[in-house]
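Before we proceed, please read the two lines closing this message. Let me know whether the structure tokens fit the sequence:

…
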Amino acid sequence: MRNVVVTGGSRGLGLAICQTLVGSGFNVIAIARNETPALAAAIADSDARLSFFRADLAEIEGLAGLARDLRKAFGPIYGLVNNAGIGTSGILSTMPDSAIEMLVRMNLTSPVTLTKYLVRSMMSAQAGRVINMSSVVSATGYSGLSVYSATKASLIGFTRSLAREVGPLGVTVNAVAPGFVDTEMTHDLDAAQRAAIARRSAMKRMPGADDVANAVDFLMSDKACNITGTVMTVDAGNTA
């Protein structure tokens, strides 16, 4: 059975991705700082195909050990979904330096470093999948999300270049760019803002977490064996 690591898998979009991949037959390891009741319930319903592994991904110096511990506990890692991240908003001119540093650490340095250590076994096996969660704001921009957008745009550059590095060894690397999805990250939007986003979309609605999870599931599957270095947008046509 193929092992897939999903970071930030304890809630919201990450948990939806975990459950969808389990449904497709993968053995999924959800990485998070804490196990939520929702994750515990999903694990109980997973037929032992979903596991929780505690880690603080902000501790960059511990990621090499995390990768080693994952392989020791579960065996070879076939796939990695770099979903964990933070969505701190704020105008750049007034954003604390510490907030900028944390955004870059969590949204860019952490996934790049974890990929470094987990992709090695995929290269040795000449098979594997890396999927990076970006965002449509990496291309469109959004007031108050300049630093967040910069980190998500950087993940796309990382995706395209790494795809060329590891492609000859049978590993694909892709990105998924959700629009405004109905998760905890968008709960700060009021009804008027949510309605405006829906109006701008070709489908006149916001996509759900399951829509994004299905895109990840496809890219993780054998059907996507010749898709690499791409960005799949899931936004109900908001940027069409």
